[in-house]
């Protein structure tokens, strides 16, 4: 007879590859346990925060997967796909003869979510005695917020393609949205670190961070700590800026007013992050430039076959990147229209634009996502997104005639909005701007190659146009 642990591992090895967020789709991987932190959920239910590494071909990979689980004594007979069984994974034998447990995905179960939020609210600690454990924390004002949540919670899962597992507890005003990070890396998750800082600084451009959960476990090189989950205030009725922009492009209506407000919000966030987090050093600035050049080379090796023979232009652009940029700071890092919602402002004063998901680009190495970078990278991210929205409008509605100046109008309005908060001219012909633009477009080519090949032509076309512009005698403009 196989043990409970063996049965669970076998069950999860079948279930995990079917999950959207599983990072090793299509590869033959095995689970290697990292730590298990149990959690009593009351009413005969048992919770576990399980962390695993993936091994393939004999090698253990650095990334750690979070698999929060709820165990309930097997009752049998009812339909596991029914609403009472949300998140059902399977049934395994217990350690005692005749005992059986139903296993569930923790983020889908009310009792598990309640336990996580209580851990956060009480700055709670769960320890295993083997140097691993889970610790709850609250941000400014978070404890009161969590204590006033109406219980029992009512849960609603987030629909759509997500790279993490988010669940809304009490959808509506006063509710919270809890995100479990699925792939973990040592150190702070930028989403938690930056969200906590922005909340402390009182910015209205992001939902307040309420609390978070950290894990720690022992390794040969010492104790590793990382963030497991974060909860934010839930802002109901959010309208996706990406969907609104694509619709506006397809209808031929102006999106300039919205782009202006998004520019102002972007600039306010940059100003807060510059004020509220440690300043970067001169070494950081050189590092930013080095990493930018390195990334363009790396992406080019993969994107060249799709974009075209522009090696000379790439080398020319890299050679022109000589001026070390001033003032690197923490930024969003993966800013695009899909990360922005508009919600009604409390005083009925029109739209309030909120910026989400400060985790950085999923294809970027985790250590790089927490380094200072250039605010101009976020600016470029949004300018690329207006271009993407026009491309998507053509794709979604082949008869749509997107007005010729639509992208330029959005870009101009966005830059005006940005500079009304952070004064200064952004020179779109400078080598630095062009390098960041190309870096983003090449990143997008790689992203679409991996995820949505049918969208590939949108960034490929943008990269080609930028490289064509570089075919002239020299790259002009100021850095
Ligand atoms: N605080 C919030 N209030 C309302 N909706 C939110 C909030 N945070 C996230 N969402 C919704 O959840 C979606 C996924 O959130 P996101 O942080 O981007 O998750 P992921 O990291 O999994 O991509 C968003 O696109 C948005 O629709
Ligand atoms: O939202 P994520 O952090 O997962 O970002 C990744 O996926 C995005 C696609 O969902 C991708 O964004 C690209 O497509 C968007 C439209 O779907 C568009 O708004 C962006 O401008 C474009 O870059 C993003 O690059 C990637 O990191």
TrEMBL record:
Keywords tagged on the record: ATP-binding, Carbohydrate metabolism, Glycogen biosynthesis, Glycogen metabolism, Kinase, Nucleotide-binding, Transferase
Q: Quote the InterPro entries the UniProt record gives.
A: Aminoglycoside_PTrfase (IPR002575), Kinase-like_dom_sf (IPR011009), Mak_N_cap (IPR040999)
Q: Which residues form the Maltokinase N-terminal cap domain?
A: 15-105
A Pfam family that this protein carries is APH
This protein's pathway reads: Glycan biosynthesis; glycogen biosynthesis
Question: Is this entry keyworded Nucleus?
Answer: no
Which reactions does this protein catalyse? Answer: D-maltose + ATP = alpha-maltose 1-phosphate + ADP + H(+)
Query: Where in this chain does the record put each Aminoglycoside phosphotransferase domain?
Result: 155-392
Q: Does the keyword Kinase apply?
A: yes
Q: What class of enzyme is it?
A: transferase
Query: Gene3D superfamilies, alphabetically?
Result: 3.90.1200.10
Q: Determine the domain of life of the protein's source.
A: Bacteria
Its Enzyme Commission number(s) read: 2.7.1.175
Signal peptide start-end: none
Q: Where are the transmembrane segments?
A: none
Subunit organization: Monomer.
Q: Which family does it belong to?
A: Belongs to the aminoglycoside phosphotransferase family.
Q: What is this protein called?
A: Maltokinase
């Amino acid at each position: 007879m196989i043990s409970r642990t063996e049965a669970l591992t076998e069950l999860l090895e079948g279930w995990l590859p079917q999950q959207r967020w599983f990072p090793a789709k299509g590869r033959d991987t095995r689970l290697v346990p990292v730590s298990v932190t149990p959690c009593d959920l009351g009413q005969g239910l048992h919770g576990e925060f399980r962390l695993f590494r993936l091994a393939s071909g004999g090698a253990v990979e650095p990334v750690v997967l979070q698999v929060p689980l709820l165990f309930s004594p097997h009752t049998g007979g009812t339909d596991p796909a029914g609403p009472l069984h949300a998140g059902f994974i399977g049934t395994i034998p217990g350690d005692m003869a005749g005992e059986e447990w139903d296993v569930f995905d923790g983020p889908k179960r009310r009792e598990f979510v309640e336990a996580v939020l209580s851990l956060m609210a009480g700055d709670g600690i769960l320890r295993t005695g083997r140097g691993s454990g889970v610790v709850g924390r609250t941000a400014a004002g978070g404890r009161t917020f969590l204590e006033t949540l109406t219980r029992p919670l009512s849960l609603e899962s987030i629909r759509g393609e997500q790279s993490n597992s988010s669940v809304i507890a009490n959808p509506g005003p006063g509710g919270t949205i809890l995100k479990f990070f699925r792939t973990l890396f040592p150190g702070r998750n930028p989403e938690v670190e930056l969200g906590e800082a922005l909340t402390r600084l009182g910015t209205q451009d992001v939902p307040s961070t309420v609390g978070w959960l950290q894990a720690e476990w022992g390794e040969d090189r010492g104790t590793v700590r990382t963030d497991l989950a974060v909860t934010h205030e839930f802002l109901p009725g959010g309208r996706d800026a990406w969907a609104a922009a694509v619709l506006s492009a397809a209808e031929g209506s102006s999106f300039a007013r919205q782009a202006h407000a998004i520019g102002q919000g972007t600039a306010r966030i940059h100003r807060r992050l510059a004020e509220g987090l440690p300043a970067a050093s001169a070494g950081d600035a050189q590092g930013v430039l080095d990493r930018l050049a390195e990334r363009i080379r790396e992406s080019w090796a993969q994107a060249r076959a799709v974009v075209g023979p522009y090696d000379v232009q790439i080398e020319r652009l890299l050679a022109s990147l000589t001026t070390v940029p001033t003032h690197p700071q923490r930024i969003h890092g993966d800013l695009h229209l899909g990360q922005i919602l508009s919600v009604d402002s409390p005083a009925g004063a029109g739209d309030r634009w909120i910026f989400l998901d400060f985790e950085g680009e999923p294809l970027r190495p985790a250590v790089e996502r927490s380094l200072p970078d250039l605010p101009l990278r976020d600016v470029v991210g949004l300018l690329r997104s207006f271009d993407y929205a026009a491309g998507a409008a053509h794709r979604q509605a082949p008869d749509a005639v997107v007005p010729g100046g639509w992208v330029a109008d959005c870009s101009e309005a966005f830059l005006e909005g940005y500079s009304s908060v952070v004064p200064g001219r952004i020179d779109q012909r400078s080598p630095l701007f062009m390098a960041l633009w190309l870096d983003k477009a090449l990143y997008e080519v790689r992203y679409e190659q991996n995820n949505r090949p049918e969208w590939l032509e949108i960034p490929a076309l943008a990269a080609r146009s930028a490289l064509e512009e570089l075919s002239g005698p020299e790259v002009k403009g100021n850095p």
